[in-house]
Design a protein that fits this description.
The complex is a heterodimer of chains A (107) and B (122).
Chain A (H helix, E strand, L loop, with lengths): L3 E4 L2 E4 L5 E7 L7 E6 L6 E5 L3 E2 L7 E6 L2 E6 L9 E6 L6 E2 L3 E5 L1
Parallel strand pairs in A: 2-11
Antiparallel strand pairs in A: 1-3, 3-8, 4-5, 4-9, 5-6, 7-8, 9-10, 9-11
Chain B lengths: L2 E5 L2 E3 L5 E8 L8 E6 L5 E7 L6 E3 L7 E6 L4 E6 L8 E11 L2 E8 L3 E5 L2
Classes of the chains: A mainly beta (107), B mainly beta (122).
């Protein structure tokens, strides 16, 4: 099974900060990766697919990059509504696996 | 608008069974793979199971293999998760999710239901 290691597990940041979250795969997964945002008590929402393609309707301050084993999600200028938990998901091979999550909190 | 509505959650004793259902609307159900994902209280997301658009291919996480069975009824736009031999560690919110077909790769989840809570406790 492919393991997804996500870091950091949590971070504190201020509105306007640039934030970067990383996911590392235990083996190459091409660009078969998505990023999701989850707010408390809500279902996750997809932000990025194919590692770097922005989901329709998602603000352009979100971007994804990477291929193979290392991937990043960047929020260029953190907004109040971005405080949430973020997860990566590999869909290269079954069983699919999520990263452990990154909780973005207000500094 | 894509809608996924889960049902069937509740309290069950260890060793018991439960069947979750997900009613889908707003898209051509028979053309898309479907998944179940769970989230234990205060924990991260765990992919549980997936089924192909025709229902002829299924996949499971190691943690549920042999105990859970995913199925679908394309005539009723529903997907089910039969959960047997339930354990305390199966306690979670279970989400139904739709897969988006992407070129040359298994489908990636694009839409989620709101989830149904399963509690395994005596």
């Amino acid at each position: 099974d492919i393991q997804m290691t996500q870091s950091p597990s949590s971070l504190s940041a201020s509105v306007g900060d640039r934030v970067t979250i990383t996911c590392r795969a235990s083996q190459g997964i091409r660009n078969d990766l998505g990023w999701y945002q989850q707010k408390p008590g809500k279902a996750p929402k997809r932000l990025i697919y194919a590692a770097s393609s922005l989901q329709s309707g998602v603000p352009s301050r979100f971007s994804g990059s990477g291929s193979g084993t290392e991937f990043t999600l960047t929020i260029s200028s953190l907004q109040p509504e971005d405080f949430a938990t973020y997860y990566c998901l590999q869909h290269n091979s079954y069983p699919f696996t999520f990263g452990g999550g990154t909780k973005v909190e207000i500094k | 608008e894509v809608q996924l509505l889960e049902s069937g959650g509740g309290l069950v004793q260890p060793g018991g069974s439960l069947r979750l259902s997900c009613a889908a609307s707003g898209f051509t159900f028979s053309s898309y793979a479907m998944d179940w994902v769970r989230q234990a209280p205060g924990k991260g997301l765990e992919w549980v199971s997936g089924i192909s658009d025709t229902g002829d291919t299924t996949h499971y996480a190691d943690s549920v293999k042999g105990r859970f069975t995913i199925s679908r009824d394309n005539s009723k736009n529903t997907v089910h998760l039969q959960m047997n031999s339930l354990r305390a560690e199966d306690t979670a919110v279970y989400y139904c999710a739709k897969g988006e077909r992407l070129p040359g790769t298994p489908s990636l989840i694009d839409y989620w239901g709101q989830g149904t809570l399963v509690t395994v406790s005596s």
